[in-house]
What does this fold into?
Amino acid sequence: MPRGVGSRNPKEVWNLVRRLPTYVRLVWALLRDPRVPGPLKGLLVLLAGYLVNPIDIIPDFIPVFGQLDDIAVTLLVLDVFIRSAPKDVVDEHLARISRNEDDLHRDLLQAEHLLGSTYAKLRDNLQGVLSKSGGRFRSAAEASRGLETWEEDKD
It folds into this structure.
Protein backbone atom coordinates (compact mmCIF):
# COMPACT_ATOMS: atom_id res chain seq x y z
CA MET A 1 0.00 0.00 0.00
CA PRO A 2 1.16 3.56 -0.55
CA ARG A 3 2.93 5.52 2.12
CA GLY A 4 0.74 8.65 2.13
CA VAL A 5 -1.89 7.14 4.46
CA GLY A 6 -0.69 9.01 7.57
CA SER A 7 0.33 12.08 5.63
CA ARG A 8 -1.18 15.47 6.22
CA ASN A 9 -0.53 16.54 2.63
CA PRO A 10 -3.92 16.74 0.83
CA LYS A 11 -2.28 16.00 -2.53
CA GLU A 12 -0.85 12.71 -1.23
CA VAL A 13 -4.21 11.77 0.29
CA TRP A 14 -5.96 12.56 -3.01
CA ASN A 15 -3.43 10.41 -4.90
CA LEU A 16 -4.14 7.54 -2.52
CA VAL A 17 -7.89 7.89 -3.02
CA ARG A 18 -7.43 7.89 -6.81
CA ARG A 19 -5.44 4.64 -6.59
CA LEU A 20 -7.95 2.82 -4.38
CA PRO A 21 -9.80 1.21 -7.32
CA THR A 22 -6.49 -0.26 -8.48
CA TYR A 23 -5.86 -1.73 -5.04
CA VAL A 24 -9.37 -3.19 -4.91
CA ARG A 25 -8.81 -4.80 -8.30
CA LEU A 26 -5.40 -6.10 -7.20
CA VAL A 27 -6.76 -7.63 -4.00
CA TRP A 28 -9.61 -9.24 -5.97
CA ALA A 29 -7.15 -10.71 -8.47
CA LEU A 30 -4.81 -11.99 -5.76
CA LEU A 31 -7.71 -13.50 -3.84
CA ARG A 32 -8.73 -15.52 -6.90
CA ASP A 33 -5.18 -16.55 -7.86
CA PRO A 34 -4.29 -20.14 -6.82
CA ARG A 35 -0.59 -19.16 -6.55
CA VAL A 36 -1.37 -17.02 -3.50
CA PRO A 37 -1.19 -19.22 -0.37
CA GLY A 38 -4.48 -20.07 1.33
CA PRO A 39 -3.40 -18.93 4.80
CA LEU A 40 -2.61 -15.51 3.33
CA LYS A 41 -6.10 -15.36 1.84
CA GLY A 42 -7.35 -16.21 5.33
CA LEU A 43 -6.26 -12.72 6.38
CA LEU A 44 -9.07 -11.33 4.23
CA VAL A 45 -11.57 -13.67 5.87
CA LEU A 46 -10.39 -12.44 9.27
CA LEU A 47 -10.71 -8.85 8.04
CA ALA A 48 -14.28 -9.47 6.89
CA GLY A 49 -15.06 -11.01 10.28
CA TYR A 50 -13.61 -8.00 12.06
CA LEU A 51 -15.58 -5.57 9.93
CA VAL A 52 -18.93 -7.29 10.52
CA ASN A 53 -18.24 -7.91 14.20
CA PRO A 54 -20.07 -5.34 16.34
CA ILE A 55 -17.16 -5.25 18.82
CA ASP A 56 -14.48 -2.81 17.62
CA ILE A 57 -11.31 -1.32 19.00
CA ILE A 58 -13.16 2.00 19.05
CA PRO A 59 -16.99 1.67 19.04
CA ASP A 60 -18.64 2.81 15.80
CA PHE A 61 -21.09 5.07 17.65
CA ILE A 62 -18.21 7.47 18.39
CA PRO A 63 -18.32 9.87 15.43
CA VAL A 64 -15.36 9.77 13.05
CA PHE A 65 -13.03 7.83 15.37
CA GLY A 66 -15.38 4.84 15.40
CA GLN A 67 -14.94 4.43 11.65
CA LEU A 68 -11.24 5.31 11.61
CA ASP A 69 -10.28 2.11 13.41
CA ASP A 70 -12.10 0.07 10.74
CA ILE A 71 -10.25 1.97 8.01
CA ALA A 72 -6.90 1.59 9.77
CA VAL A 73 -7.35 -2.17 10.30
CA THR A 74 -8.51 -2.59 6.69
CA LEU A 75 -5.50 -0.71 5.31
CA LEU A 76 -3.12 -2.63 7.55
CA VAL A 77 -4.50 -6.04 6.55
CA LEU A 78 -4.59 -5.14 2.83
CA ASP A 79 -1.02 -3.85 3.06
CA VAL A 80 0.17 -7.08 4.69
CA PHE A 81 -1.83 -9.15 2.18
CA ILE A 82 -0.35 -7.42 -0.88
CA ARG A 83 3.21 -7.30 0.50
CA SER A 84 3.10 -10.97 1.52
CA ALA A 85 1.80 -12.25 -1.81
CA PRO A 86 4.45 -13.54 -4.22
CA LYS A 87 6.02 -10.50 -5.88
CA ASP A 88 5.91 -11.96 -9.39
CA VAL A 89 2.18 -12.68 -9.00
CA VAL A 90 1.50 -9.14 -7.75
CA ASP A 91 3.51 -7.67 -10.64
CA GLU A 92 1.65 -9.84 -13.16
CA HIS A 93 -1.75 -8.72 -11.88
CA LEU A 94 -0.72 -5.06 -11.77
CA ALA A 95 0.32 -5.33 -15.42
CA ARG A 96 -3.08 -6.81 -16.31
CA ILE A 97 -4.89 -4.10 -14.36
CA SER A 98 -2.98 -1.39 -16.19
CA ARG A 99 -4.20 -2.91 -19.48
CA ASN A 100 -7.80 -3.34 -18.16
CA GLU A 101 -7.47 -7.11 -18.51
CA ASP A 102 -8.00 -8.08 -14.87
CA ASP A 103 -10.64 -10.42 -13.41
CA LEU A 104 -12.69 -7.73 -11.64
CA HIS A 105 -12.98 -5.70 -14.84
CA ARG A 106 -14.09 -8.82 -16.74
CA ASP A 107 -16.48 -9.84 -13.96
CA LEU A 108 -18.15 -6.42 -13.97
CA LEU A 109 -18.48 -6.51 -17.75
CA GLN A 110 -19.98 -10.01 -17.52
CA ALA A 111 -22.45 -8.88 -14.82
CA GLU A 112 -23.43 -5.94 -16.99
CA HIS A 113 -23.94 -8.28 -19.95
CA LEU A 114 -25.98 -10.82 -17.92
CA LEU A 115 -28.16 -8.25 -16.18
CA GLY A 116 -28.59 -6.03 -19.22
CA SER A 117 -30.71 -2.99 -18.54
CA THR A 118 -31.14 -4.02 -14.88
CA TYR A 119 -27.42 -3.43 -14.32
CA ALA A 120 -27.62 0.04 -15.82
CA LYS A 121 -30.73 0.84 -13.74
CA LEU A 122 -29.01 -0.30 -10.52
CA ARG A 123 -25.92 1.74 -11.34
CA ASP A 124 -27.99 4.80 -12.23
CA ASN A 125 -30.15 4.43 -9.12
CA LEU A 126 -27.08 4.22 -6.91
CA GLN A 127 -25.53 7.24 -8.60
CA GLY A 128 -28.81 9.13 -8.14
CA VAL A 129 -28.95 8.30 -4.45
CA LEU A 130 -25.34 9.37 -3.97
CA SER A 131 -25.72 12.62 -5.87
CA LYS A 132 -28.95 13.49 -4.07
CA SER A 133 -27.33 12.93 -0.69
CA GLY A 134 -24.17 14.77 -1.62
CA GLY A 135 -22.37 11.42 -1.52
CA ARG A 136 -22.37 11.30 2.28
CA PHE A 137 -24.14 8.97 4.66
CA ARG A 138 -23.20 8.63 8.31
CA SER A 139 -24.57 5.09 8.63
CA ALA A 140 -26.04 2.20 6.68
CA ALA A 141 -29.47 3.07 8.09
CA GLU A 142 -29.14 6.61 6.78
CA ALA A 143 -28.13 5.28 3.37
CA SER A 144 -31.16 2.98 3.39
CA ARG A 145 -33.47 5.88 4.26
CA GLY A 146 -31.87 7.88 1.47
CA LEU A 147 -32.60 5.10 -1.00
CA GLU A 148 -36.23 4.84 0.19
CA THR A 149 -36.68 8.61 -0.11
CA TRP A 150 -35.13 8.60 -3.55
CA GLU A 151 -37.45 5.78 -4.67
CA GLU A 152 -40.50 7.69 -3.33
CA ASP A 153 -39.43 10.86 -5.13
CA LYS A 154 -38.89 8.92 -8.34
CA ASP A 155 -42.45 7.53 -8.33
The two ends are 44 Å apart (CA to CA). Residues 116-155 form one domain. The CA atoms of residues 5 and 100 lie 26 Å apart. The helical segments are 10-32, 38-52, 65-84, 87-98, 103-115, 117-132, 140-154.
